[in-house]
Amino acid sequence: MGSINTTCAYCGVGCGVTAQVTGARSVEISGDASHPANKGALCSKGTHLGETVGLQDRLLHPMIGESRVTWDRAINEVAQAMGECIETHGPDSVAFYVSGQLLTEDYYVANKLMKGFVGSGNIDTNSRLCMASAVAAHNRAFGEDIVPCTYEDLDHADLILLVGSNTAWCHPVIWQRIERAREQSGTKLVVIDPRRTETAERADLHIPVAPDGDVALFDALLATQDVDQAAVSRTCEVPDGFWERPSADHGLEPALFAQLAGLVAGAERMVTLFSQGANQSRSGTDKGNAIINLHLATGHINRRGAGPFSITGQPNAMGGREVGGLANTLACHLGFADDERAVVADFWGTDRLTKGPGLKAVDLFEAVHSGAIKFVWVMATNPAVSMPNAARVREALARCETVVVSDVLEDTDTGRLARVRLPALAWGEKDGTVTNSDRIVSRQRALFSGPGEARADWRIVCDVARAMGHTEAFDFPTNASVFREYASMTRLAAESGKKLDLTDWAQASDAAYEAMEPFRWGGDHPLASGASTPSGKPRLVALSAPPPATAQSGFPFRLNTGRYRDQWHTMTRTGYSPRLAHHRREPLLEIHPDDARAHGVFDGDLCEVSTQQGASVFRASLSEGQQRGALFVPMHWTDITASSAAGRTGKLASSDTDPVSGQPGFKDAPARLRRVETAWRGFLVSRSPLKLDACDYWVRSRVEGGWLYELAGLAAIDFVSLLPEGERSEVAYPSKGMQRYAMCNQRGELEAALFVTRKGDLPARDWVAGQLGARVEDPIELLAGRPRVAGPERGALVCVCHDIDALEIGRVITAGAGSVAAIGSACRAGTNCGSCRPELARMLEEWDDEIKEAAE
Ligand SMILES: Nc1nc2c(c(=O)[nH]1)N[C@H]1C(S)=C(S)[C@@H](COP(=O)(O)OP(=O)(O)OC[C@H]3O[C@@H](n4cnc5c(=O)[nH]c(N)nc54)[C@H](O)[C@@H]3O)O[C@H]1N2
Ligand SMILES: Nc1nc2c(c(=O)[nH]1)N[C@H]1C(S)=C(S)[C@@H](COP(=O)(O)OP(=O)(O)OC[C@H]3O[C@@H](n4cnc5c(=O)[nH]c(N)nc54)[C@H](O)[C@@H]3O)O[C@H]1N2
Ligand code: SF4
Ligand SMILES: [Mo]
């Protein structure tokens, strides 16, 4: 089979991927050199996509409860439940909760069904948790949800500000692009983030802003700039009294602030990239407008190398915004004004169009909880994990009369609460379009045929719509026909003065759709010809900074949450890749060493973090990169990958939202901390997943040929009961609380091994995990946890692409490699996806420090 050009499954960078299908379910992945978003580059997640296309744990058939049913039965069940609900309780008693991981075609029909034919605005998306504040800021400033610049502007900027963005981890190919601009043109980089992330470590300047201090910071920054107010009044709408407002208190060290102000004043072309540290905040919309204000007032917009640049998280967050997936837009960037409703109703040929916006995610699940919503259909998102105050969302789903979940996996935290589960096509099978951060529309293409009875999401929605009687409006024979209708609908946007315009594609043939090359709508600087406001001018927005948070009694810390470099959200795909598991095997609580000391916490201890919403346990990791009083935990772990007490960030997050956008402030919740005293700890490797409910703490990660569990307990348990059946070998030193077991199958191959201790050390995991499935010739060697004849020693894996560990890199540095590039040429580390380059840079710095110390 030839190679197929498609788009990466993950982030909003939207990298083009060239896939060479090598077998029934195997594929070789490389970067698509012709794709404008990445020009051939990929990050660790994209590079290892091939490890995630297996059929393990896939949902292959429609299910009602625990029974497999036919598609006809499942579709009728969903259509009937929804129809009855609408009939008895009105259209607002049903809701869809969808996702930026749907394709544009899926999103379009879901929105059309809910807003056009059910007649309710109750379709919202996980983009509410992600982009809603940026959308609201764009609407306030530009009169339309428009990103006014592109990745190319990064190549031409001389100053780049990153606000609340851990770009090196979360948008790594943008990061590579920024690195290149710095190397080639000396572009200066400033990172504004309360944490010193790997991104911040590599910057020219790190501004450790106070949590939610961004509005004050940008407002104060604007006040320092030499602005031609009269000129700005000619090009922008300026609210009365805008320039006369008192300057906000940014709370930064004056010298640091002056340095930042100087960089901004000296910049000729400035781009500000912002993501979740800006959006996921109770002042998220104001943060977006504070950034845009600075750009508008200083003229850093609508020209090469300049612009306020909100980057999207998911592969099709932008496509969802375009079609109208958010509860507060109707469709195609249109709102709910009478004239807008009229043209949409006419286009869709419906007399049931929703009268107004629907409920936003947090309110939507609250309405499920109260019983006002009695039917909810969740597609391509895992809200039982990823919503704030997740325990309450679970409670809501558990109470709801009908929960339908369309997912690709058999077992997810949300799926466990569903009555009807519908099997969807996954990346590599589904086929359609996505829009990335800088408005490039690209094709995701099918590489494999769909497994079992899985169907495309758009088709499932159309099947249900037709079963409800909306036969004509949902009579789409192909994905291409959905896209054509959407493209022709953007005419309505264009006719009402918006920039969204895909009408060139309205008549495209199936073949043209199939062959679509990536293209960008709106051009490079869509607002250069004027904003989408009635006056055609963009607006400055008068803001007042939120008061600095005061510590709440009993909750001395502020809890920040976010992402790891090599995991994606609730790990439903990345969790299957052994290579991606190396970077972080457990959910860590990052805490400043002084705070840890004050709480009697040592590195590696288990700690319980509590907020007003709930409590969960994490492994402490002391980090100077944290501010005092601030904690950070990752969002990724679930019921599938951890015990119910461990790593549940969603339970901790507060559902307080931004008043304009309705986006939750995931980055800041009052919290407290308690060290957990455990009676034992250990680890278990196993070829198959195990039930470990007997352990108070377990966390699972992937290894080659099986799974690795980190374990701990509050009291002793019967350890043998944790193990699968088989031929058992064991050693024990009761005085040390040490117990070790190996379980082999009839062929003498290792099925599982368990290592437990009360206080002592545990062997390194890698060698033991590497024995899974191998014949155990010498059980004592296995139980010792290391080979009798030492093989070449291995350090922690650093470069996952080329399989190069820390020891090897250490050797290369000692031998004289003095830069990241030199390490790369000596041993290839960091030369593929580049995700480990910040780590390599740190190793170089540490080496420098050691040399200096040795010299002193
Ligand atoms: N590896 C990986 N990449 C991903 C994803 C993933 O799951 N894994 N998910 C994708 C998605 S959907 C998204 S939305 C993006 C998110 O990408 P990012 O926004 O880069 O990721 P986060 O880790 O959520 O948060 C970014 C930073 O915001 C900082 N922050 C917290 N509070 C504040 C504040 O008050 N002010 C400022 N200035 N900063 C603050 C945090 O310390 C954190 O370092 O990543 C995308 N890419
Ligand atoms: N504490 C905290 N919570 C957060 C955040 C944070 O920073 N901190 N960030 C928030 C943000 S920005 C986001 S975007 C969300 C992400 O959180 P979620 O939206 O929950 O993300 P995923 O885990 O990717 O869930 C996707 C689900 O869809 C399934 N799936 C994948 N592909 C398809 C498909 O093609 N069709 C169907 N039907 N199903 C599919 C997957 O198996 C999985 O179950 O989390 C939010 N939650
Ligand atoms: S940066 Fe990485 S995860 Fe994001 S689209 Fe590109 S390859 Fe995929
Ligand atoms: Mo996101």
> Numbering strands along the chain, what is their spatial order in the largest sheet?
5-4-15-14-13-6-7
SSE-based structural type: alpha/beta
Outline the biggest β-sheet.
Answer: 7 strands, mixed
Q: Note the total helix count.
A: 29
Mean pLDDT: 96
| Tally of DSSP β-strands | 32
Low-confidence stretches: none
Which small-molecule ligands are present, each listed once?
Answer: ligand MGD, iron/sulfur cluster, molybdenum atom
Range of helix content: 25-40%
Strand content: 15-25%
Radius of gyration: 27 Å
Please give the alpha-carbon distance between the first and last residues.
62 Å
| Bulk shape | globular
Show the helix and strand layout.
Blueprint lengths: L2 E5 L8 E8 L2 E6 L12 H4 L15 E2 L2 E2 L2 H19 L4 E5 L5 H15 L4 E3 L6 H11 L8 H6 L2 E5 L3 H4 L1 H14 L2 E5 L5 H4 L3 E3 L6 H11 L4 H7 L18 H13 L3 E5 L1 H4 L4 H15 L8 E4 L6 H7 L14 H11 L12 H10 L4 E5 L3 H4 L3 H10 L2 E6 L12 E4 L8 E4 L4 E5 L12 H11 L11 H17 L14 H5 L4 E2 L36 E6 L15 H4 L6 E4 L1 H6 L7 E6 L3 E8 L7 E5 L14 H4 L16 E8 L3 E7 L10 E7 L2 E8 L13 E7 L4 E7 L5 E8 L7 H6 L8 H6 L12 E3 L4 E2 H9 L5 H8 L9 H19 L1
Parallel strand pairs: 6-7, 6-13, 8-9, 8-11, 9-10, 11-12, 13-14, 14-15, 19-23, 20-22
Antiparallel strand pairs: 1-2, 2-3, 4-5, 4-15, 16-17, 17-18, 19-24, 20-23, 21-22, 21-24, 25-27, 25-30, 26-27, 28-29, 29-30, 31-32
Helix pairs in contact: 2-19, 3-14, 3-19, 3-20, 4-13, 9-13, 16-18, 27-29
The chain binds ligand MGD (2 copies), iron/sulfur cluster and molybdenum atom.
Describe this structure in words.
This protein is an alpha/beta fold and 856 residues long. Helix content is 31%, strand content 19%. It has 29 helices and 32 strands. The strands form 7 sheets. Strands 5-4-15-14-13-6-7 form a 7-stranded mixed β-sheet, sandwiched between helices. Strands 19-23-20-22-21-24 form a 6-stranded mixed barrel. The protein is globular and about 80 Å long. The chain starts with a strand and ends with a helix. The mean pLDDT is 96. Residues 11, 130, 163-166, 169-170, 192-195, 197, 209, 211-212, 214, 275-277, 281, 313-314, 560, 562-563, 565, 567-569, 667 line the site of one ligand MGD.
